[in-house]
Amino acid sequence: MNNNAILVEDLVYWYGDLLAVDHINFSVGNGEIMGFLGPNGAGKTTTVKMLTGQLRPKGGRAVLLGYDVAKHTAEVQSRIGVCFEHTNLYEVMSALDNLSLFSDLFNVTDFDGYALLKRVGLSGREKDRVSGYSKGMKQRLMVARSIVNHPQILFMDEPTSGLDPVSSEAIRNLILEERERGATVFLTTHDMWEADKLCDRVAFMNEGRIVALDTPRSLKQKYGKRSIIAEIASGDGQLNREEIALDEEGTSHAVQKLFGSGKVLSIHSEEATLEDIFIQLTGRRLSV
Amino acid sequence: MKPRTIKALLKKDMALFIGNRFYLFITILGLVVYALVYFIMPSELDERLSLAMYAPVVPPAFEQLAVGGIDVEYFESEDSLRDSVISGEFDVGVALPPDIMDIWAEGGKPGITVFYASTAAPEITETTTLLIKELSYLQTGQALHFDAKTEILGPDLLGEQITLRDRMRPMLVILILLTEIMTLAGLIAAEIQKGTARALLVTPMRTSDLFLAKGILGVGMAMAQAALFMAIVGGFGYQPLIILTTLFVGSIFVVGTGFLIASIVRDVNAVTGWGLLVLILFAIPGIGAVIPGLLAEWAKVIPSYYLVDTINKVANYGVGWAGIASNLGIMSGITLIIVIGGLLALRRRFQ
């Protein structure tokens, strides 16, 4: 037994001639939040499907909590929670009935639907039909459903996509709470800011391969270019912008010269984003 | 298989069924309408024959028609007789030649023309022909110029005429069963289309649990409605156990067909199209029970033929186990094949 909640070895999957997942390897530690980033068609969803037992790998293996997913699917599925990107709730049923159904399927013995719905901010609407919920409320119910069995690993696919800031923040807080409880979180997202804020490590996936995997900070240090941008008043009343790269030989001299001019109006630091790094590594944008 | 899982899935499926107004509507409406259709059909046999006749000279033997339970209306010309048949006023018209008595007196054969409406039932045409031959014999005292040999094939139903409503009963109960194909296939297709099936398949529940729950729901819904209909229309008069067994096999057949349709459709709308096609095809044998002799032998390739035939024989003629054993055997075999095919196709669809 090791400390890995997820261990992926040489995982492969293809659809016909299309190699969707190309011999990927990674591990996720217990209690870690792992961000899985990549554009549409990069192989993220196929990977998640293999990890959650929806697809049988064509090669390699995925071990979750010590169980090979392909061989012990039920054991794995009883210990994980999955929050899908697209709402797939039973809309003619109430929120409480939705959660009650899944608590039965997971054989949960201490199910408290009211408490769970309170956690996601749906108190007072427990017995309403889900069809009457807003998009944000449905997404929060999706999150509640994914944690109904107190999962040891929580898979979240674009959990805040298209949501208002309040709902997004509520879901991010819940992810952090789950991590506090001890759960491992596998987060698939396009939102670089969210990944940066929540994830302990992020993996960039492109064309079926993992092209980078590290902490956001390390990735920025490794691939990013830090700089400061100053706004300087020119003599004719115009504003000029000057960028000075940090971590270079002449940086100290350039900064002294800038402040020596006495014309600096404002100054702020610039840091490479995960999006910038992804583009640098793959030549593609994440959001396409 | 865990009882708690199956119970939870059944509860969910019932909620989805009740929550879907269309399926609820067609289920209740179907039951009510089919029962109404049964009760508005004639409950008694009309055994009187109406006959249009053109006879410039009425042979004495033919005058006995009126006292023999036949309504005869005389027309003044052959043309007006033809018109009455063409307009549908009469199913049969008989035109006698003006010199019929002279021809008979000379020992000749008069030409008697009989007009049948295109909608006349085969029984009526046969009865009328026999009637005229009999009257000719009565009038002339001469034997017919052919030997008649009668052989009865199948159960002798002489004297066991069935009312139209009872002849419709097998078709109506089959339609009730078949409607559930659309309901079941629609529920499954909706689960796939809306992605709820995916949410279920990442739980410890097995695919077989899901299919079992759907199967129990489908059999339960189809069986309950069909049995209720048969109880309302007095279909359990003979051999209720055979009727229930047949309905049970029919309900499983419905589930298998529902699985097959759900596995090939892309969305819920397509279910209606495929469902109607299957419903029309499988309802054809029912027409054979309403109008005996109408269907050709090829109708036996339609699986539902064996259901209809069994219900018809048992509910209308009181045939026992021995008389329907082969039907039930064939139907059970077909059902087994369809259920296995449906399960395999659906499993593939879910993956």
Summarize the structure.
Chain A has 288 residues and is an alpha/beta fold. In chain A, 33% of the residues lie in helices and 30% in strands.
Task: Tell me about this structure.
- The complex is a heterodimer of chains A (288) and B (351).
- Chain A has 288 residues and is of the alpha/beta class.
- Chain A has helices at residues 44-51, 73-77, 95-105, 113-119, 135-146, 165-181, 192-198, 216-223, 251-260, 274-282, and strands spanning 4-15, 18-29, 33-37, 59-64, 67-68, 80-83, 153-157, 184-189, 201-206, 209-214, 227-233, 239-245, 264-270.
- In chain A, helix 5 (135-146) runs parallel beside helix 6 (165-181).
- Chain B has 351 residues and is mainly alpha-helical.
- Chain B has 2 domains: 3-42 and 165-350, no CATH class; 49-139, abc type-2 transporter like fold.
- The longest helix of chain B is centred in the middle third of the chain and has 30 residues, at 164-193.
- The model of chain B is unreliable at 144-158 (pLDDT under 50).
- The A-B interface holds A 52-54, 74-75, 77-78, 80, 82, 84, 86-93, 97, 100-102, 104-107, 145 and B 2, 4-5, 7-9, 11-12, 15-16, 19-20, 194-196, 198-206.
List keywords for this structure.
heterodimer; A: 288 residues; alpha/beta; six-stranded mixed sheet; four-stranded antiparallel sheet; 10 helices; 13 strands; B: mainly alpha; abc type-2 transporter like fold; 2 domains; four-stranded mixed sheet; 12 helices
